[in-house]
Amino acid sequence: MNTALFFVLLGVAAAAPAPEKLPEAGGVAPLPIAIVRQVQVNPDALGAHSSDFEAENGIVFQFSGSEGALGGANMIGSWSYPQADGTLAEVSFVADENGFQPQSSLLPVAPAFPHPIPQFVLDQIEFARLEDERLAREEANSA
Hints:
With 143 residues, this protein is α+β, with helices and mostly antiparallel strands.
């Protein structure tokens, strides 16, 4: 759960625009961003809990959780924030016994597998197979 919470807070922090200049350097201090909606349900007897908030700058975060079968916390949730180009960045996640599992079109995707195997690799595999057969025959003849 700590890992999931870390990533959630990291995502929210990354969504906040950085001020161009710090006030100490002669810049203008950024205005505070108001929370326009916030609902929090603390753990009940079964460990169920949830939190939901929305900030005036468009950041939305929500999650709900409960105690897992092995005593840890299971959580499901999402967050979103407006990007500089006007699109909405959205991330949903599940955090349970299998770890933190985010889903988003923003996340990199591994290439599809299986990919075509180059001919030189197939040739090397065939060579190794023939070599193994030759060595097996030699061992059988010498025994």
